[in-house]
Design brief:
By secondary structure, this protein is α+β, with helices and mostly antiparallel strands. Strands 2, 3, 4, 7, 8, 9, 11, 12 and 13 form a nine-stranded mixed sheet that branches. Strands 1-5-6-10 form a four-stranded antiparallel sheet. The chain is built from six helices and 13 strands. The chain has one domain.
């Protein structure tokens, strides 16, 4: 398996995603209804298609992005990135304790109609992952591959505070090695403090500012 297979979109939307995606689009257009009630001949069908395209991109969430943030302060992993302890050509196998990762993302979608003020819709995606039997392969301060014994997931998707999707999986066995072509860089504290970058993902107990998806001009 490769990291290309690690998008969580099938988990959030199901396979095929049509029904869940249509539900999200319906909620978004309903939220816009009052704002566009005075527009005659408004092309709702075209707007729904544009919203669906942007929302499908929104759900294309990479598992590696979630893991990178969840583990950024894990000391055992930081030690693997210490050049004083491990040479660049050395591969370290690091077993991880069974653990639970909670993540939330609050993307926003802006709708622009002519000269009107943009209308912003806020979504919330909350995800819980329980991982067992996890082993990381680390080389040159980068996670190059991983093995996950089993995984269980829960997810809730909301639009403007209204719950749209609730999913929960059974415990799924994930045998085999997952190769990470691009890898997950391990940033030691001194490096992270020197870089003023914003994490895309944060733990659920930390509020995440809305990430603006591309505005849809009408």
């Amino acid at each position: 398996m490769t990291e290309d297979n690690l998008s969580l979109k099938p988990f959030f939307l199901g396979d095929p995603p049509n029904a869940a995606l249509s539900q999200c689009v319906a909620a978004a257009t309903a939220a816009l209804g009052a704002s566009f009630a005075d527009l005659r001949g408004f092309d709702w069908h075209s707007l729904a298609g544009d919203i669906a395209e942007k929302l499908e991109e929104m759900f294309d969430i990479r598992l590696t992005d979630i893991l990178a943030t969840a583990w950024k302060d894990y000391q055992a992993l930081l030690d693997c990135a210490d050049p004083a302890k491990h040479k660049a050509d050395e591969t370290v196998s690091l077993p991880m304790v069974d653990h639970r990762i909670e993540t939330t993302l609050s993307p926003c979608l802006e709708i622009v109609v002519g000269e009107r003020e943009p209308i912003r819709l806020t979504f919330e995606i909350a995800c819980v992952l329980e991982l067992k039997g996890l082993v990381l392969k680390v080389q040159d301060a980068t996670i190059r591959a991983l093995r996950i014994g089993s995984c269980r997931g829960q997810a809730v998707v909301k639009c403007e505070g209204i719950s749209l999707i609730k999913r929960e999986t059974r415990e799924i066995d994930l045998p085999g090695r997952i190769a990470l072509a691009r890898g997950i860089p391990i940033k030691r504290p001194a490096v992270r403090n020197a870089e003023k970058t914003a994490d895309r993902w944060r733990p659920m107990d930390a509020e995440h500012d809305g990430e603006l998806l591309e505005a849809i001009p009408i």
